[in-house]
Amino acid sequence: MNFKHKFVFLFPGLFVLIGILIFPIIFTIRLSLSGWNSYTPEMNFIGITNYIRLFTDDPRFWESFFRLSFLSVTTVILQYVIGFALALMVWREIKFKRFFRVIFLIPMMTTPVIMTVIWRTFFHESLGPVNDLLGNIGVKPILWLSDPVIAKFTVIIVEVWQWTPFMFLLLLAGLLSLPKEPFLAAAIDGASPFRKFVYVTFPLMAPISIGAIIIRLIEASKIMDTVFVLTSGGPGTATETSSFYIYIKGLREFQMGYAATLSFTYLVIMIISLTIIAKVLTKLMIKE
Amino acid sequence: MHKLYTFLKYTFITLWTVFIVAPFLWAISTSFKDFQSVNSKVTYIPWLDFEPTLEGWRVLVKSPARGGVDIVEPYFNSIFVTCTASLISIILGTLAAYALSRFTFKAGFVRNNDITFFFISQRIMPPIVLSIPFFIFLSTIGLLDSLLGLVVVYIVLLMPIAVWIMVDFFNRVPKELDETALIDGCNPYQAFYKVVLPNSIPGLIVAGMFCIIFGWIDFFFAFILTFTEVQLLPVKVVALNSSITPWWSLSASALISVAPLIIVAFVVERYLSKGNLSGALK
Prior knowledge:
In chain A, about 75% of the residues lie in helices and about 0% in strands. By secondary structure, chain A is mainly α.
């Protein structure tokens, strides 16, 4: 095939993407070396001062990062287990199969921030239904949004509600694409459902599982919308994630230079850790 | 043993369904309440627990000057930005995906897979990292607080999704199809447009749906890059949340905002059942 045609197909998309992205990335790196803030809003050069500050004198960033890691890993594990269970349940014949499939998909179609607005009223400590119903069976009101520990779990509940459907969708699509023969063979051997799952379904699903987990980890590492509306990072900094902290530094306190330092560091850590996780998962789940 | 398993299965499915439906039911119920039935004690069922009113819904179509929460304009803004950005992303993404699926590229150590990865990896980029330079960039060229500026940003968000789904889809469209077309005298563009594209409609629909979902539900960029001139739906609803808007109109506006995409759930399920999604989402 003629040589030049392939570039005609590829380049529009590639150039638009690079064109839109190249400026922000270079700009962020340059900005991170400047002391741009609300007093001196200019691109001066202060070397790596910002980076020194980040690595020696900013425990709040690292705390927010570990909090983010905890939140995203916990939610993704829960989403994977529940999503896989649900996908297995509606994979084969079951009553009202299509009805349940649609129901299980709905949360991912709804806007996270808007649903969180509803969740806020849902978990309201005196006027919300959760504490009211729990009160009926004699449980004392739970401080869903104002207790530092419980607030984290409220965020997890909302995230699991919101994004388990995506995991479910990816895994169900994977299950539906599996070849039939291994299952027939297992049925002829008279394998129990449990053994069938351990020796046939799970190994066949391993590559798809890894893909789904990585995709969800990438998305979960950006947890921000839910936190923003549900708790605004509070109480105190109990639910503050990295993105939210960078947002506060950059667009509320207008320490643009320092926020750029945080952004760039965060991006680098993200890329490295996701690559490592992908490698480790592949090793663990695919046994040659 | 088998009976126990079936029992557990249906119990789990029922519980999960209740969990998923609960916030919607609560919002629907709340949207028909008035001051008395929200603030005195927690109420659930209309007519039984409280006397329903339509006040929450009426407010949505009133202008702000008359005590309403004008949601119509943000609604159309959201539709415009989502559809425009999705369309551009699908067109550019599909072309790029076709190139990556059919031709071999070599530039130094860069191969097809690396280019595909480059496209998809843009999803790793946390929105906050992009938002600060975009904020400064768009204000320099005067596109801050405008629909056009948002469309540009959303293309970055959506094109990776289009490429991700379409590359896999094209890989499953047999190559013989375009080769036959070329032998029959089509040029590569005609082969793509007249033969491959009509055979890729399920893939295009799936990619389109995902672009629309992820465009429609985005909040962060819209929140940072617009202020007063242009408001998108999620920003509007969150702004209501922080002001003194009563729960009933808050619930009504939230419900009306998430309603259109719930239809998408039905479409996704149809494609899932027909087996069209299986390959596209791997």
